[in-house]
Each structure stands twice: as C-alpha cells, then as structure tokens.
Amino acid sequence: MNKNKSFESSVLGMQGNLLSFALKLTLNRDEAQDLVQDTTLKALNNEEKFVENTNFKGWMLTIMRNIFINNYRKSARENTIVDTTDDLYHINIRQGSSFETPESAFALGEISAIISTFPADYRNPFNLHVAGYKYEEIAAKLKMPLGTVKSRIFFTRKRLREILKDYR
After folding, report:
1. Is 0.70 surpassed by the pTM of this model?
2. Which fold, 102-167?
C-alpha cells in the first residue's frame, strides 16, 4: 500500500512537467490538458510496468509521447484520403471536406504549392506520413532507411511551419 501511495504522489508531482511537454506537442491548452489526463490515467493503470531505479520522468514523458503519436496517427487516418497519383502531388485533405470560403480554398492551394516546391525526397515521405502511414511502412515503400524517413519528415514539417508561421 505504501508503494502505491508513493507511486501516485510521484505521478501527481509530474503534472507540471507533463503539461509543459503536452503544450509543446499540441500547441493547444485544452488538448494539452486532455493529454496530461490521458497520460496520468495510463501511468496509474500501468504502475506494475514501471521498473524501480529507472528514470521516472523519462517513463512518464514516453507514455505521453506515445499517446500523442497514436492519437495523431488515428486522426490522420480518419481525416485523410490517400493520394494515389504517381507523383503524390495532391495534398491529402479531410474526407468530405468542402471549401466553404474562398480563403480556405486559397490556403489549401497555397499549402499544396509550397509542398510541391520541396524536393521529392522530402515531399514523398511527408505526404505518406500525413496520409497516416507508419514510418516503417514509408521506409519500405520508398526503399529508404528508417532514420532517413524520420529525419526527412521532421525537416519537412519544420520547414512548412517556418513558411506558414504567419497563418497562426
């Protein structure tokens, strides 16, 4: 019983760190708070999986990162259609989406145009990732090392954020 209380207090003591990390991942306070709650619940439900004398903070942040990634992938699969054209030119958009305003149609066109300017070695892995493919699937499909796929997606996302920073 004492071990359980100690574990619970350690989890509760991590709430500030978890919220900071969640805000970096989601860029949205409400989503960050939901992520903290999901992480806390998962940690408490999996106390027996924590190995004593290991990095508790690292364990908690890994749980959060995995939940975030899984939620992102699930959302990407549910909300995208896969571009099956040979050149992967079209950006994947939400299923059933329609352009309600000229501004949204223009913004999507601009994003597509920006992505199309990226080299194919970066554009193709990124488009597959947005379509919901896992890193391993992308690496196999494009015949690239897994680390290369991950870094190219990371740098493409980073560059896209830099270019689109004024849209926030």
Report:
1. no
2. Arc Repressor Mutant, subunit A (1.10.10)
Residue with tokens 């501004």: 103
Domain coordinates of the chain in residue numbers? 2-78, 102-167
Other Cβ atoms less than 10 A from the Cβ of 31: the count is 15
Task: Say which residue the tokens 């980073």 belong to.
Answer: 158
CB 149 within 8 A of CB 125: yes
Check residue 119 and give left, alpha or beta (phi > 0: left; psi -120 to 50: alpha): beta
Q: What is the pLDDT of residues 22-68, one digit of tens each?
A: 999 888 899 999 999 999 999 999 999 998 888 999 999 999 999 99
In our burial notation (b when 16+ CB lie closer than 10 A, e otherwise), range 85-95 reads eeebeebbbee
Residue 11 corresponds to which amino acid?
A: V
> pLDDT of 136-166, one tens digit each?
999 999 999 999 999 999 998 888 888 877 6
Domain formed by 2-78, architecture? Orthogonal Bundle (1.10)
